[in-house]
Amino acid sequence: MSVKSTYFEDIEVDKIRETPAITVTETHVSLYLGLTREPSASAAGVPAALPLCMSIGLGWRVKEPPLAVLAFVGLDWQIVKDVRVGDTIHGRSRILSKRPMRDGGFVVDERSLIDQHGDVVQQGKFTFLVAKRKEVPA
Amino acid sequence: MSEQRRYFHEIPVGEEYESPGRTVTESDLVIFSGLTGDYNVLHTDAEFMKQSIFGERIAHGLLCLAIQSGLFNRAATEYATLGLAGLRWKFKAPVKIGDTIRLRAKVAAKKDLDKPDRGLVTIERTIVNQRDEVVQQGETDLIVEKRR
After folding, report:
1. Which residues in chain B are contacts of A28 at CB distance < 8 A?
2. What is the mean pLDDT of chain B?
């Protein structure tokens, strides 16, 4: 069984991908708070880490096959603006760099989340270890 | 009510916290996939993952990051937090279904911000599993209100 993926060799540096959008609802917030037991939602009502968590799923909704991620290595993330219930966010992603290793390679993905006004609400960099074509993801 | 929250000046640098444990369940993974739309095979395909180096499904990195945020609030007296400014994070080892994670945290630094009613509190955070292995580690910058 093969899983369709974008492997390390196929990744184009600097290519920009825009995801479809999603409206952040009261339901997302309730499920998130129940899952994490985080009592202190921000004044805006949407916990700051929720849009970050949703950004990965948004990345799956582009037409290109997802990265063949072997491991999520790290992230560096800034919160720029509060997200409120009812806001509609989408993602923009650009591969900043790729560095081959013996097994797979490191890929730095610069991401931002943008609201319905066109304002960046959160942004940062994700580092992934991505499989080379001959390897099986994970 | 607000008296139980700690303001910027009431949080000493160097203070340490340890949270209760939290077992990460299959339900957590399923809910998180549904909530976020992250259906990566790593988290959702048990048969595929049997063939992987992990041998089974692993939790989403961001699921455990989100869980630790809740654990922090169970470990420390609630801060008068206005928001999260940013974070720097490393995923060091996988968390598997049934693993029990806990958070160790320490107030690393504090600094004033341009607005006089708030300051930035940097928290060092380490998530360990039931074998005391570090699975995630990083720092978060919290914006905390100053008492007027």
Report:
1. 35
2. 95
